[in-house]
Amino acid sequence: MTMQVQMQKRPRWFPLFLLLLLAARCGSDGKSPIVPPEPLSTQNVLRLADADGAAGTPDTLVLSLNNVTDLSALQFDLSFDPAILTVTGTLATARSAGLETFLNTGSGTARIILVDLQGVASIATGDGSVVTVTVDVDAGAAAGASPILVENASGVDITATTLSVGGSSATYTVH
User: Fold this and answer.
1) Contact between residue 151 and residue 29 where contact means Cβ atoms under 8 Å apart
2) Which residues of the chain have pLDDT under 50?
3) Burial of 114 (0-12, 13-18, 19+ CB in 10 A)
4) Disulfide engineering: 79 pairs with which of 5, 126, 149, 165, CB 3.0-4.6 Å?
């Protein structure tokens, strides 16, 4: 009599769930990012467009991704002057449809995660906007330019491999 032991396979979304869990545990302080492996020779790049607005009004920031691999998850931090901006929400674009967005904010920081928990959606290879970030411009913000930094960016491909993602920063101008 032989006994067969079957090993349970983890669902395809399990590695992405672990990424989300690790990111949530790291917080948005920018001091404990998930460390990606060695950078690829052709790097994925997340870009933030310069923006401007009036004190005391809401506004939208647009982030675009030029990626060389389909991504099932994307994580990054925004660092900004909390006397000028407050991040209030995120929204996936048509290019990242099917991915859920998660936001963890702190004073002057926001960690944003786009992830497919179902294992069916991804950000296809290409270039274009992937997420919009809504912000409130403080009513007492002085006129002038202030940097917004894109930091600690990484992605996960459809095989659950962590990939390096470069980030380009921008300027927010209050007028």
Assistant:
1) no
2) 1-10, 18, 21, 25-26, 28, 30, 32, 34-41
3) buried
4) 149
* Token digits of residue 163: 């990939």
pTM of the model: 0.75
Q: Are 85 and 172 in contact (CB under 8 A)?
A: yes
Extract the tokens encoding 80: 């900004």
Distance CA 175, CA 165 (A): 32
The single residue listed with the structure tokens 């390096």 is 164
- What's the CA gap between 10 and 33, in Å, rounded? 25
Distance CA 133, CA 101 (A): 10
Domains within the chain, CATH numbers bracketed:
43-174 (2.60.40.680)
CA atoms of 117 and 20, how far apart (whole Å): 9
Contact call for residues 61 and 133 (beta carbons, < 8 A): yes
